[in-house]
Write a structure and sequence with these properties.
single chain, 469 residues, Rossmann fold, N-(1-d-carboxylethyl)-l-norvaline Dehydrogenase, domain 2, 3 domains, 6-stranded parallel beta sheet, 13% strand, elongated, binds uridine-5'-diphosphate-glucuronic acid
């Protein structure tokens, strides 16, 4: 099928590249000429596994780039809207980009088209898109608006698209449902999974995925409700972690016991310094605003957000309780991205913590495998950027793990121990077994687990021999 994807951010690029891999002809539309030129040149603007391979495979063949949305609409059977919906001051989503795209699409509706909302949007958006397209002159019989929320996670977006738990499609007509079924047919029929050159299947993936057809309003709510529920799971376990700290229990053991109940499940129960990113914080605010507008005060979501922010402050207090004073202390920071596997620092709890530590007068030496370039734009003074984790640790009064990168869970602890000034690690992502850290000479503080101290009286206060010399 011929499709247009409007917006070449995370969602648009991944959606376009994956649909091309399923055999469709894709035009990626963006109004940023510089971005288009870079994409045509073979550049890949985001850090996303398998995306460079897919773009290289299909660029100039099944993927084309264009700045002309009307022309792209005319030559497509489906037009996906994947533009940004940033939060406004009051927390609800700013839909002005969606509206201007809908206006443009209107001029290209010259035969039956399905307009698909892919951006995360509040309930009623599809109705508004329909109204705007009609208001600008398109024949209502010539198009349908559907809602097809994405559930992609940054870092695994390509495999999330190709091996989804489910595909949700909200429609108001059978004709639109049929177009959507055909679009996803290569996945739902299992055809893609039998292909020799398919992107490798993640271990946990169950194929083929189920296509769930709903009303457009239900689909819109599914997206917000899913993200809100996942954020709630994280805040829930973070709250439990705080109780564990108070009573001396171990949150990892609690998670094991709770997560093995198949009704609850073990995923998204990892405690830490809170969730960040471009989705959860924004979507929770937007969902709350949607609920309020419909007459429901969804206070649970406010509490989820409050626990999330408190989690960061708790960690800061923990660092203070270990270091006593902050001014002039040198801290090695591992991780700046909002989570592992991405270069994205939007609403990153790691960056927010570093900013707080800088305000307190600490010197920071930070390392992140992918996010340093972006972090340099916001952390303009007081931070040194290291070439690797070991350089960040060198001479540190304490080492802080703030992002759950896999490589931070596999550090050479003896090497690290020899480089730091004091063997103190504060792990905001629970990447290590406390007993192992003590064996390697570290006093180790994590989230929701008892501190593991090398020596109860001189906990982490003894400098390295080299320093003493
Ligand atoms: C999230 C959802 O997981 C996707 O399903 C959704 O499509 C996407 O938002 C979106 O709305 O576009 P993403 O923001 O990429 O995806 O990242 P997640 O993997 O969900 O992680 C979000 C945050 O939660 C990160 O800061 C991560 O460190 C934190 N987290 C995650 C925890 O603290 N504990 C966990 O157990 C899991």
């Amino acid at each position: 099928m011929r499709i247009a994807v409007v917006g070449s951010g995370y969602v648009g690029l991944v959606t376009g590249a994956c649909f091309a891999d399923l055999g469709h002809e894709v035009v990626l539309v963006d109004n940023d000429e510089k971005k288009l030129a870079a994409l045509r040149n073979g550049e890949v603007p985001i850090h996303e596994k398998f995306l460079p391979e897919l773009l290289a495979r299909h660029r100039g063949q099944r993927i084309k780039f264009s700045g002309d949305l009307q022309a792209a609409t005319r030559e497509s059977e489906a037009v996906f809207i994947a533009v940004g919906t940033p939060p406004t001051e009051s927390g609800d989503a700013d839909l002005s980009y969606v509206e201007s795209v809908a206006r443009e699409i209107s001029g290209g509706v010259d035969g039956y088209k399905v307009v698909v909302e892919k951006s995360t949007v509040p309930v009623y958006t599809s109705q508004w898109i329909r109204t705007i397209i009609m208001r600008n002159g398109a024949d209502p019989a010539q198009f349908d608006v559907t809602s097809n929320p994405e559930f992609l996670r940054e870092g695994t977006a390509v495999t999330d698209f190709l091996y989804p738990d489910r595909i949700v499609v909200g429609v108001e007509s059978e004709q639109a449902a049929e177009v959507m079924r055909q679009l996803y047919g290569p996945l739902t029929s299992g055809w893609y999974y039998g292909r020799g050159d398919a992107i490798p299947r993640p271990e946990a993936a169950r194929v083929p995925p189920r296509l769930i057809i709903t009303s457009t309003k239900s689909a819109e709510l599914i997206k917000h409700a899913s993200n809100a529920f996942l954020a709630m799971k994280i805040s829930f376990i973070n709250a439990v972690a705080s109780i564990c700290e108070s009573v001396g229990a171990n949150v990892q053991q609690v998670c094991d016991g709770v997560g093995t109940d198949s009704r609850i499940g073990p995923r998204f129960l990892n405690p830490g310094i809170g969730y960040g990113g471009s989705c959860f914080p924004k979507d929770l605010m937007a969902f709350r605003a949607v609920a309020k507008e419909s007459g429901y005060d969804f206070r649970l979501l406010e509490e989820v957000t409050r626990i999330n922010e408190e989690q960061r402050h708790r960690f800061l207090r923990k660092v203070r309780s270990v270091l006593w004073t902050f001014r002039g202390k040198r801290l090695g920071v591992l991780g700046l991205a909002f989570k592992g596997g991405t270069d994205d620092i939007r609403e990153s709890p790691a960056v927010l913590l570093v900013q707080e530590l800088l305000r307190e007068g600490c010197h920071i030496c930070a390392y992140d495998p992918a996010a340093m370039e972006r972090a340099q734009e916001v952390l303009t003074s007081g931070v040194e950027f290291a070439a690797d984790a070991y350089e960040a640790a060198t001479g540190a009064d304490a080492l802080l793990i703030l992002t759950e990168w896999e490589e931070f869970a596999a550090l050479d602890l003896d090497r690290l121990r020899a480089l730091v000034k004091y063997p103190i690690m504060l792990d905001g992502r629970n990447l290590y077994d406390p007993a192992v850290m003590v064996e390697h000479g570290f006093s180790y503080y994590s989230v929701g687990r008892p501190a593991a101290l090398t020596d109860e009286l001189t906990a982490g206060t003894r400098p390295n021999k080299r320093e003493q010399a």
